[in-house]
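Sat 14:20. Reprocessing the chain from the morning session after the first attempt stalled halfway. Input below, unchanged.
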Amino acid sequence: MPRVKGGVTTRARKKKVFKRAKGYWGNKKNQFTEANEQVRRSMRYATRDRRTKKREFRGLWIVRINAAARGNGLSYSQFINGLKSAEITIDRKVLAEIAVTDEKAFTEIAAIAKQALAA
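Finished this time. Tokens:
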């Protein structure tokens, strides 16, 4: 059986790893074993943090909505409960955006939530 040298394949595989490892510190960018290890770890972190990012943004939206709701005399939980009672379905991302950019519109939404709570 003839000897097969995998030069082209090996070079392509290493090239792919080095391309991803570009910008890493020390040997992690130019030594294959170090680079491969770091790239694998980085990909694992990226997968994990795509999910974490969603959690963190939801928390941020809730903080923004709470601040705006308290400015209108409601707590966050009262505000959300009022919206559900009034059958208003606006997601937290949009509510947070309204709270930050358009105070007047948020005040109107808060007034509707208050009326629904009173009823």
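The chain has a mean pLDDT of 93.
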